Amino acid sequence: MRSNLWYLISKNNKLYTVIIGLIGYKAKEHNDAFDSEKGRVINLFTKRFIEKFCDSTGAIDWIKLVEYNSGNYDLNQYLP
Is the overall model pTM greater than 0.85, yes or no? Predict the structure, then answer.
């Protein structure tokens, strides 16, 4: 004999479908908010990258980029 937990706790044989539906709805809300924020941050980082490392035509200034990532720092500026 198969017992039905959902009916036992709620008198509704299909309660699990209601629960899953609600979880799915909430997950979509959170995913939409995350995607919106992710897009905003990507746009901001792209804007900053272009301002700092691209020339007036939009081409990457590879010298600036490599110097920024690999150049030597004046350690006296950062050490006590």
Answer: no
